[in-house]
Target: Carbohydrate ABC transporter ATP-binding protein (CUT1 family)
Amino acid sequence: MASLSLKNICKVYPNGFEAVKDFNLEIEDKEFIIFVGPSGCGKSTTLRMIAGLEEISSGELRIGDRLVNDVEPKDRDIAMVFQNYALYPHMTVYDNMAFGLKLRKVPKDEIDKMVKEAAKILDLEKLLDRKPKALSGGQRQRVAMGRAIVRNPKVFLMDEPLSNLDAKLRVQMRIEISKLHKNLGTTIIYVTHDQTEAMTLGTRIVVMKDGLVQQVDSPQNLYTKPKNLFVAGFMGSPQMNMLDAKAEVKGEDVYLNIGETAIKLPPAKAKKLVDGGYNGKTVILGIRPENVHDSQMFIESSPNTVLESTVSVYELLGAEVNLHFDIEGTTVTARVDPRTQARVGDKIKVALDAEKIHVFDKETELVIT
Ligand code: ATP
Model:
């Protein structure tokens, strides 16, 4: 069993800086957990506390049932893979992987079996005699993983393991790591600031900001049901569009007024604003670029959510086009079909998919609906 429990974990550095504030998380056996957030949010500090490389200022950390706050890193049954793979340059791939086992006085034939098994999983069998300098970045990264795998740890900790690789290799390694997780059946905790990596790898994602956990959820839920403005803006690329809007209640209907344009909310969403007493208040309307449509058919079927503007930027990305335009001083992006006729300077109409509208409280930045 490799469950982990983090209760009220805090980290205050000797200079008084609070890097992690009241972190709570129950991690189940075999989960692939991602810590994601902007630079300096406390992801690495949290991971290093789990590894035992950083002292826990307060709170309780359990691996399985064992309280490990004061347990040495080497006795925690975890393996850590860093972004700079830290391979020994004078050793072969085989020796790099075997090194930790030799130190632990594991019998030679057992070491041989473990290294070869790991090499097979990571497709390194043909490279065992090479030195690191004769390997590509991706191969080096796999050796670093191999070194962790041979230890047969209960938990893998990975701190931005792909950040030194080029874009193409990152995509490949992402798939490798996903496979590795399935094959090994271990718990993985993985730190990244890259939201795409987080979305594609994680079974659950922990979004952090300024040392505080913002939301813990499945990739799908984080994307479709962000709890606050920060999570909504951080997950997804291009970013969710955010527009200031004044809420106006007319009977049971609720309109969000953006300048002269009124966007009518569907009944269930409208009710949340009525119940929350938002009539007359400025809120934030959030809509993802893929939910802003420019097709004639969509616009005709959605007369209550139409916006008009002039295209300022046209970006062809191959399978899709991003149209950028200004609405009341805010740049809005629509991700549309590449067959769109719209080009820079054209006056366009777009319609929002009303069911996909998010509304946030401007003061608390929490989601209303
Ligand atoms: P990045 O993505 O840039 O690695 P991160 O989310 O992993 O960022 P941490 O490395 O955990 O962030 O750092 C969290 C905060 O703690 C940062 O503001 C950092 O400056 C601060 N910090 C880190 N180490 C120390 C230290 N030894 N003493 C004081 N403050 C520190």
Q: What stands out?
A: Residues 13, 15, 17, 19, 37, 39-45, 193 surround adenosine-5'-triphosphate (CB under 6 Å). The chain has a mean pLDDT of 94. The two ends are 38 Å apart (CA to CA).
